């Protein structure tokens, strides 16, 4: 079982309470596709991904980034049971979407960078540690049902 | 790992020109963060009195590390040759597990995002990520 202190819980809920999902979601996903171009393999049907500008302005990517970020809401609401909360999503990513689970960490790192850019100095070492711990639990839960 | 293209090198040099005046702050912040977020890295600094972010040893060492990064930027066309001495230092004297290079690189990128949110675009991010990975590889050259 993952243990969360009161401070960690409030750090996570604060980050998500003040989040512009459309802005952060689209930026995180497009950054992932630019910094780790092999992740584009999952988005062949999304239209023009030929260069960084195309990716950044692609409306399908923007919409999907928002969707993925909202997917984290359930983890925020169920921090004591993320593994069970994401069991179905994990099966989906494995059986239907066939996403290499190593890629979850890549998106998590890009999300960290985007949040860091938004928060600036407020993204202190403690906040970074908490946010990365949260994402690590999410990433682990999403990979759990792969076989 | 791929080698750096001309475009990557230009991007790194251009971004470095913008940020080099803040190198000490970047190094101190990145190192301080690393020690908090990845506590296992503290094992290399057991001889320091104070490992907290902003402490004197952290600031001083952050400056040393970023001095190495600055040097690498100037030798970007041949990192392996340029970082030979540093590689020997890390391999034979410091014996830092090379997995930690990735960890420090990540924290440098986080600091760049917090300090330069508008300049640290995805394009700059990928160039810097590749550069730091190439740097880490050059540092690992002499390990075995």
UniProtKB/TrEMBL annotation, chain A:
Gene Ontology terms describing biological process: hydrogen peroxide catabolic process
Record carries keyword Magnesium: no
Database matches in SUPFAM superfamilies: Globin-like
This protein's GO CC annotations: blood microparticle; haptoglobin-hemoglobin complex; hemoglobin complex
Gene3D superfamilies: Globins (1.10.490.10)
The entry's keywords: Heme, Iron, Metal-binding, Oxygen transport, Transport
Gene Ontology molecular-function annotations: haptoglobin binding; heme binding; metal ion binding; organic acid binding; oxygen binding; oxygen carrier activity; peroxidase activity
Domain Globin residue range list: 3-147
InterPro entries, sorted: Globin, Globin-like_sf, Globin/Proto, Hemoglobin_b, Hemoglobin_oxygen_transport
Name of the protein in its database record: Hemoglobin beta embryonic-3
Family, as annotated: Belongs to the globin family.
Pfam family, one: Globin
Keyword Transport in annotation: yes
Superkingdom per UniProt: Eukaryota
From TrEMBL, chain B:
Official protein name in the record: Hemoglobin embryonic subunit alpha
GO cellular component: blood microparticle; haptoglobin-hemoglobin complex; hemoglobin complex
Signal peptide boundaries: none
Domain of life: Eukaryota
Function according to Swiss-Prot or TrEMBL: Involved in oxygen transport from gills to the various peripheral tissues.
GO biological process, one term: hydrogen peroxide catabolic process
Gene3D superfamilies assigned to the protein according to its UniProt record, in alphabetical order: Globins
SUPFAM superfamilies for the chain: Globin-like
Keywords from the named record: Heme, Iron, Metal-binding, Oxygen transport, Transport
Single GO term (MF): organic acid binding
Family: Belongs to the globin family.
Domain Globin: 3-144
Database matches in InterPro entries: Globin, Globin-like_sf, Globin/Proto, Hemoglobin_a-typ, Hemoglobin_oxygen_transport
């Amino acid at each position: 079982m993952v243990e969360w202190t009161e401070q960690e819980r409030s750090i996570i809920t604060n980050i998500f309470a003040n989040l512009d999902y459309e802005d952060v979601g689209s930026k995180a996903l497009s950054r992932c596709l630019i910094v780790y171009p092999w992740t584009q393999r999952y988005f062949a049907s999304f239209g023009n991904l030929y260069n960084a500008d195309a990716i950044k302005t692609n409306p399908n990517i923007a919409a999907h980034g928002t969707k993925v970020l909202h997917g984290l809401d359930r983890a925020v609401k169920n921090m004591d049971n993320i593994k069970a909360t994401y069991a179905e999503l994990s099966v989906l990513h494995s059986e239907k979407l066939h996403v290499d689970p190593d890629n979850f960490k890549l998106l998590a790192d890009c999300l960290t960078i985007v949040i860091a850019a938004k928060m600036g100095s407020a993204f202190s070492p403690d906040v970074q540690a908490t946010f990365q711990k949260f994402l690590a639990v999410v990433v682990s839960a999403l990979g759990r049902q792969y076989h | 790992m791929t080698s750096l293209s001309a475009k990557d090198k230009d991007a790194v040099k251009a971004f470095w020109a913008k940020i080099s005046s803040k190198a000490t702050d970047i190094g101190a912040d990145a190192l301080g963060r690393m020690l908090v977020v990845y506590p296992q890295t503290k094992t290399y600094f057991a001889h320091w009195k104070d490992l907290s972010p902003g402490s004197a040893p952290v600031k001083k060492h952050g400056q040393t590390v970023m001095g190495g990064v600055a040097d690498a930027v100037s030798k970007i066309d041949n990192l392996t040759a340029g970082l030979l001495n540093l590689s020997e230092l890390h391999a034979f004297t410091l014996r830092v597990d090379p997995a930690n290079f990735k960890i420090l690189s990540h924290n440098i990128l986080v600091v760049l995002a917090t300090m330069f949110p508008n300049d640290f675009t995805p394009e700059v991010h990928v160039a810097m990520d590749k550069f730091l990975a190439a740097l880490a590889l050059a540092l690992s050259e002499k390990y075995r």
